[in-house]
UniProtKB/TrEMBL annotation:
Keywords: ATP-binding, Hydrolase, Nucleotide-binding. It comes from Mustela putorius furo (European domestic ferret). This is Transcription termination factor, RNA polymerase II. GO terms for molecular function: ATP binding; ATP-dependent activity, acting on DNA; hydrolase activity. One of its GO terms (cellular component) is nucleus. Gene3D superfamilies: P-loop containing nucleotide triphosphate hydrolases. Residues 26-190 form the Helicase C-terminal domain.
């Protein structure tokens, strides 16, 4: 039986490539790391951050398959539920992994989002503004954190992510210049930035 085909921008792909049960290189690497963390110490927990709720849903499906307990905080979770999930995660008996949307982590809904129960942070996709990723890291790297914090950043070689990394480094340099008084503030992507990203 022939595999269904999906046409995307004039190219044809096997439909199975788009199934949310399929493990990409990022998902595979994430699962290897999470399994190692689980195997090394029961007291270490992880926070997985993505800009995309659909990515968090894919991760959740793979966590279930691997027997890793998790909770998810995204835009569909009420503030009361959010606080209950955070409290459970920060307790020793709570889930091993917290999946969190980058937008919730940074929005007003993220105020007080203290995830010090986790000491591993996984950034699955990159944002052009490095300060947003720094704010996500601040969710676990806070007063009260008693474990060493490890940030895992996934960057696929030969993709736009390498260009975003270059752009982040440029933004960090600009921020340092602004703070030292030798530069001007930049809050938006410039045309030059877009050309770097998309050629």
């Amino acid at each position: 039986e022939a595999s269904p085909i999906i046409s995307l921008n004039g190219e044809r792909f096997k439909a199975e490539l788009f199934e949310n049960t399929r493990a990409s290189s990022k998902i595979t690497s994430l699962l290897v790391e999470l399994e190692a963390i689980r195997g090394n110490s029961g007291s270490q927990k992880s926070v997985v951050v993505s800009q995309w709720t659909s990515m968090l849903q894919v991760v959740a499906r793979h966590l279930q398959r691997h027997g890793l307990t998790y909770a998810t905080i995204d835009g569909s979770v009420s503030p009361k539920q959010r606080m209950d999930l955070v409290e459970a995660f920060n307790s020793s008996r709570g889930p091993q992994v917290m999946l969190i949307s980058l937008s919730i982590s940074l929005s007003a809904g993220g105020v007080g989002l203290n995830l010090t129960g986790g000491n591993h942070l996984f950034l699955l996709d990159m944002h052009w503004n490095p300060s947003l990723e720094d704010q996500a890291c601040d969710r676990i790297y806070r007063v009260g954190q008693q474990k060493d914090v490890v940030v895992h950043k996934f960057i696929c070689e030969g993709t736009v992510e390498e260009k975003i990394l270059h752009l982040q480094e440029k933004k960090k340099t600009l921020a340092k210049q602004v703070l030292s008084g030798s530069g001007t503030s930049v809050k938006k992507l410039t045309l030059a930035d877009l050309k770097v990203l998309f050629g």
